[in-house]
Automatic annotation (TrEMBL):
The lineage of its organism: Bacteria, Bacillati, Chloroflexota, Caldilineae, Caldilineales. One of its GO terms (cellular component) is cytoplasm. This is Imidazoleglycerol-phosphate dehydratase. Keywords: Amino-acid biosynthesis, Cytoplasm, Histidine biosynthesis, Lyase. PANTHER family: IMIDAZOLEGLYCEROL-PHOSPHATE DEHYDRATASE, IMIDAZOLEGLYCEROL-PHOSPHATE DEHYDRATASE HIS7.
């Protein structure tokens, strides 16, 4: 799979939400995001920028209920888009990590694109929401990405005081770890596994 073809277009329509995502893995950080959830738009924009992904997101959901369904379905689709864009995952670096500071906060994210979905998330929040996004949803968003993107994802805020800063550090670290893990290693032939396959 050439770098120019590592992209995906995902649509999802339910009684609760309607989502459209286009992801180009080897982009330049262009973001065109509209989910109806301002803080989530901010996080996805910096995710694209720091990961150098080109990302288009349109989401409409039952925000009159709350933000849960919309945010969750966006990350289900983002995970599916990443999985589809990476194809057989041949030649991938596969594993990477990133430490990212945001003022007083420091986050670590480590990823393994080996096809085994799992998420470990360690962060305590002091407030119930940042903007119009509940802080209790952040773990669920990372978990949804891991499950539907078929990746092992460990995220931890080592320290921090401000919840906005903690979450921003997490998303920047996630972006940078994924950018590194999705790179192609020219020395590697085939999938990056001693098994010869990345399927479970």
């Amino acid at each position: 799979m050439s770098l120019s073809t590592r992209n995906a277009f995902i649509q999802r329509k339910t009684r609760e939400t309607e989502i459209e995502i286009h992801l180009l893995v080897d982009g330049v950080g262009k973001a065109d995001i509209d989910t109806g959830i301002g803080f989530l738009d901010h996080m996805l924009t910096l995710f694209a920028s720091h990961g150098l992904f080109d990302l288009h997101v349109r989401a409409r959901g039952d925000l009159h209920v709350d933000e849960h369904h919309t945010a969750e379905d966006v990350f289900i689709c983002l995970g599916k888009a990443l999985d589809q864009a990476l194809g057989e995952r041949s030649g991938l670096v596969r594993t990477a990590h990133a430490y990212t500071p945001m003022d007083e906060s420091l986050a670590l994210v480590a990823v393994d694109l080996g096809g085994r979905p799992y998420c470990v998330f360690e962060c305590d929040f002091a407030t119930p929401a940042v903007g119009n996004l509940g802080t209790d949803l952040i773990f669920h968003l990372f978990e949804s990405l891991a499950i539907h993107g078929r990746l092992n994802l460990h995220a931890r805020v080592l320290y921090g005081r401000n919840d906005h800063h903690k979450i921003e550090a997490l998303f920047k670290a996630l972006a940078r770890a994924l950018d590194a893990a999705t790179q192609i290693d020219p020395r590697r032939q085939g999938v990056p596994s001693t098994k010869g396959t990345l399927t479970i």
